[in-house]
Design brief:
By secondary structure, this protein is mainly alpha-helical. The protein has helices spanning about 5-20, 30-50, 55-80, 95-120, 120-125, 135-150, 160-165, 165-185.
């Protein structure tokens, strides 16, 4: 059984997706914000499903990280659109320089909110450790590596594929998981 609040979040997610598909995916900046907000709703739904409180910092981190990936995807799509007559209508509203700035701002927000999450009093109290800050280098490396892949290899068009296929990102993710597990379970 699900809680009523979980059902509300699910309904909101469904309604937002309808609006996104019908109109919002064609509105510059809003298209990326709606995608990012969808990820925040997933985090909230997950927390409601397992009945835990969600940190404000993790919501901000989720939002800014999703914005980072969404703007990176738009940049990749923009590069593909240069060689194709068929592309998303909204891409005509973007350009590489603007997207580069949005990617930088979103990545900085994701990094800072993650670091602040790891040292937030509620996080330290929930996990009984102040050592999660030591996982930050893995997060920094992953974001910088992804930016490298966006700018130097032009691989931002499919974030899922890029994350799965890049060895540097895989090693960073595994390192983060191992260190987080060691900190949380062997503190």
């Amino acid at each position: 059984l699900i809680s009523l609040n979980f059902a509300y979040v699910l309904l909101a997610y469904f309604i937002i997706n309808i609006f996104y598909s019908a109109k919002l995916k064609h509105v510059v900046i809003i298209d990326a914000f709606v995608v990012a907000f969808g990820f925040v709703l997933r985090v909230v739904a997950g927390a409601l499903a397992i009945d835990v409180r969600v940190s404000h910092w993790i919501l901000i981190c989720t939002f800014t990280l999703a914005l980072f990936l969404a703007f990176g995807k738009r940049r990749g799509e923009l590069l593909l659109a240069e060689n194709s007559p068929k592309y998303r209508r909204v891409l005509s509203e973007y350009d590489k320089n603007f997207l580069d700035q949005m990617i930088s701002v979103a990545s900085a927000g994701a990094i800072m909110s993650y670091i602040l999450y790891t040292i937030a009093p509620e996080t330290v109290a929930n996990f009984h450790t102040d050592k999660l800050i030591f996982t930050s280098p893995f997060v920094l490396f992953a974001i910088y590596r992804y930016q490298y892949l966006i700018y130097k290899r032009e691989l931002g068009g499919d974030p899922t594929k890029t994350i799965i296929q890049d060895k540097g990102l895989s090693v960073s993710l595994i390192g983060w998981l191992v260190l987080s597990t060691l900190i949380l379970y062997f503190n």
